[in-house]
Design goal:
Length: 314
């Protein structure tokens, strides 16, 4: 008996598929980290601020997913045509959710981000939540929408690393308490930038051929599969090296050892799977990215949990 098609599923199930929940930790892990960094401050707004910050992170995820799928529908259609059995169904080309509905959802999410930022800013007498909401919408739009379309012009991975590794923790924290960008926090975010860059580079591996045909300039289409994989692993290692060096220098606390161990263990697993993740080997690429994401998201969530339990030096 053939498997049921997602296109024929009930509407809520199709929307859930379109939201790509498996990718949410990319945004939610640094958002949780940002929130946990504020918990030790006596002036942090732990009630309404925590609620608004959580809703804002979810709205940001939904805005990113819907905007990217709407912007990438032509390239997604190319991939489905070239590899009908090699990739999962795409939201718009496969008729899972219509393009118009996805565009409307993107606008609603953007409005929700601004509303949540305005509410938090009003309650906390701070412009930061609203400012970060506007900047987030601009950055996410610049990633894939005209006139910038940086994901088509070679700057998408760097923008993603900056937004995920730097912007998201600071933005999420602003809903509870504005973090001073100094001392140990700078070391933590510097490492997070490079681990996020590793994920951003690896995300282009499975789309190499369709991106090249569709005119997208990514690290993978520009440098090739092998160089992109090596650069992704090197970026992961650099992120860990920054944390390790800061830990040895005393700039980061003892808890740094736990995220570092997770990063090392899963990073080695990603390295062992890298050689098979060649162009067109979609299953091997997925296995490589799975280990890479475990290293990145596992270390980030470990940071968040340990900081929540033990605090973080200011």
């Amino acid at each position: 008996m053939p498997s049921p098609r997602i296109q024929d599923a009930p509407l809520p199930q199709r929307w859930l598929y379109a939201m790509k929940p498996a990718s949410w930790p990319k945004i939610l892990a640094p958002a949780v980290l940002g929130i946990c960094l504020t918990l030790g401050h006596p002036e942090a707004h732990l009630g309404i601020g925590l609620l608004l910050g959580t809703l804002h992170a979810l709205a940001t995820v939904a805005f990113l997913v819907t905007t990217n799928d709407w912007a990438d529908q032509r390239v997604d259609a190319i991939k489905r045509r070239r590899f009908p059995d090699g990739c999962s169904p795409k939201t718009i080309p496969d008729g899972i959710v219509p393009a118009r509905a996805l565009g409307v959802a993107s606008l609603i999410c953007a409005g929700l981000m601004i509303a949540l930022g305005a509410i938090a800013g009003y309650r906390h007498q701070s412009l930061q939540p609203l400012l970060f909401s506007v900047l987030g919408i601009f950055a996410l739009g610049a990633y894939s929408l005209p006139p910038f379309k940086l994901n088509y012009r070679g700057g998408g991975e760097l923008l993603e690393a900056a937004g995920v590794g730097l912007g998201m923790p600071i933005a999420a924290a602003s809903f509870l308490y504005p973090l001073p960008l100094q001392g140990p926090l700078l070391w933590l975010l510097a490492g997070l930038f490079f681990t996020s860059l590793a994920s951003a580079i690896a995300s282009g591996l499975s789309d190499e051929e369709s991106d090249r045909e569709g005119g997208k300039r990514t690290f993978t289409t520009a440098l090739g599969n092998t160089a992109a994989r090596n650069l992704s692993l090197a970026s992961l290692a650099l992120g860990g090296a920054i944390w390790f060096a800061a830990h040895l220098d005393g700039a980061l606390p003892r808890i740094t050892a736990v995220p570092l161990v997770l990063l090392l263990l899963f990073g080695l697993q990603a390295h062992s799977r890298s050689a098979a993740a060649i162009t067109g080997a979609f299953s091997a690429q997925a296995s490589f990215k799975q280990a890479l994401h475990r290293a990145i998201w596992g270390s980030t969530f470990a940071w968040a949990l340990l900081i929540a339990l033990t605090g973080f030096p200011s």
